[in-house]
UniProtKB/TrEMBL annotation:
Highest taxon listed in the record's lineage: Bacteria
InterPro entries found in the cross-reference section: GspF/PilC, T2SS_GspF_dom, T2SS_GspF_sf
Family per similarity comment: Belongs to the GSP F family.
PANTHER family: GENERAL SECRETION PATHWAY PROTEIN, TYPE II SECRETION SYSTEM PROTEIN F-RELATED
Protein name in the entry: Type II secretion system protein
A Pfam family it matches: T2SSF
GO CC list: plasma membrane
UniProt keyword terms in alphabetical order: Cell membrane, Membrane, Transmembrane, Transmembrane helix
Subcellular location: Cell membrane
TM spans (from-to): 112-134, 154-187, 323-347
Bilayer topology term: Multi-pass membrane protein
Domain Type II secretion system protein GspF as annotated: residue spans: 14-135, 219-342
Length: 352
């Protein structure tokens, strides 16, 4: 089993190629040195095809394009890098952007998966208690012949249900939950619903917006600095974004720029621009466009919001900890009360 996925090894290929070329190694020799380090057979075959195309006279960017593994953004940076003599710099830019993309994804995943893991463990423990412990308590309480509180009756009914149908109900519930999670957050045609849910939660909304603005600044600014035309850079930005509201905005902005309009015009003609880009950020972009310093200003915006998103991710995790602890406490307290109340009633019945 490979230690890296295809996507990770594709990025490793470019990162190592940039380092070797910077050290003065030739392209063919660099590819020959990289291939033995990779574990994925598919990527090794890709390198062999690239070497064959290079020997046949194709430029490097065309050889990579023929593999079909890399986005148009990567191919464009390689093509411009070869033509301008800045191939190493552009390959390093690709590596930096890939690293930032992994950082953005890890921030969002950490904020999402922490409560998910805690909540899942709480559900598993709760089901275990309800399935194996509560049915035994039901036998004890029924032999005491006392009037049980409603909370005890509800939990005992749940335990009885799981004892009778748990072997079917629990797998069905787990499958339904996993399917709902997949369709909400991963399935392309329905993940907009999951995005809308996350954007409606204040902490997650701030995190997602900051991540996307950071991606906007770093990616668009980096592409413009490398010499990519702005309309092509906006297409790459649209393909890279994870949120549908931003993808729609980038598509609108790209059409405006392609028609000869300014970025300011593209922002002002999009009704929801103020909802996803703060007014100070827009003002900075407009001023930079007017002064001809747009690429550098975008990169600075990206760095600023990259730091903000890191702080927000830590803040979201910190804020969720007491909420998760309260939910765990609530579950434990519910079971404890359901068990203690009948015992308290029984002790009270013994008193004269």
């Amino acid at each position: 089993m490979a230690l890296f996925s295809n996507r990770q090894e594709e990025e490793v290929l470019l990162e190592n190629l940039a380092m070797l070329l910077e050290a003065g190694v030739g392209v063919t020799s660099a590819l020959e040195s990289i291939s033995p380090q990779l574990r994925n057979t598919k990527i090794k075959k890709v390198i062999s095809r690239i070497q064959f195309d290079l020997d046949s006279g194709f430029p490097l960017w065309k050889s990579f394009e023929k593999t079909g593994l890399y986005s148009q953004r990567v191919i464009s940076l390689m093509r411009i890098g070869e033509k301008s003599g800045k191939l190493v710099e552009n390959l390093e830019l690709i590596s930096q952007q890939s690293q930032k993309e992994r950082s953005f994804q890890s921030q969002v995943q950490a904020a999402l998966f922490y409560p998910l893991i805690v909540f899942s463990l709480t559900i598993i423990v709760g089901l275990g208690v309800s399935w194996f412990v509560l049915p035994r308590l039901a036998g004890v309480f029924s032999s005491l012949e006392i009037d049980l509180p409603w909370i005890t009756k509800a939990l005992l009914a749940l335990g009885s249900f799981l004892q009778s149908y748990g072997a079917v109900a629990v797998p069905v519930l787990a499958t339904a939950t996993a399917a709902a999670f997949y369709f909400l957050f991963f399935f392309p045609k329905t993940r907009k619903v999951g995005e809308a849910i996350l954007l409606a939660i204040p902490g997650f909304r701030n995190l997602l917006l900051e991540v996307e603005i950071s991606r906007f600044g770093n990616l668009l600014g980096g592409l413009l600095q490398a010499g990519i035309p702005i309309d092509d850079a906006l297409v790459s930005l649209r393909d890279a974004t994870l949120l549908d509201p931003f993808a729609k905005f980038y598509e609108h902005l790209q059409k405006q720029v392609a028609e000869g309009n300014s970025i300011k015009k593209g922002f002002s003609s999009y009704p929801s621009a103020k909802k996803i880009f703060p007014a100070p950020v827009q003002s900075l972009i407009f001023a930079a466009e007017q002064s001809g310093q747009l690429p550098g200003s975008l990169v600075r915006i990206g760095r600023l919001f990259e730091e903000r998103s890191s702080n927000t991710a830590r803040g979201v995790t910190t804020a969720l900890e007491p909420i998760m602890l309260f939910l765990v406490w609530l579950g434990v307290a519910t079971v404890a009360i359901a068990v203690i109340l009948p015992i308290y009633s029984l002790i009270g019945g013994f008193n004269p």
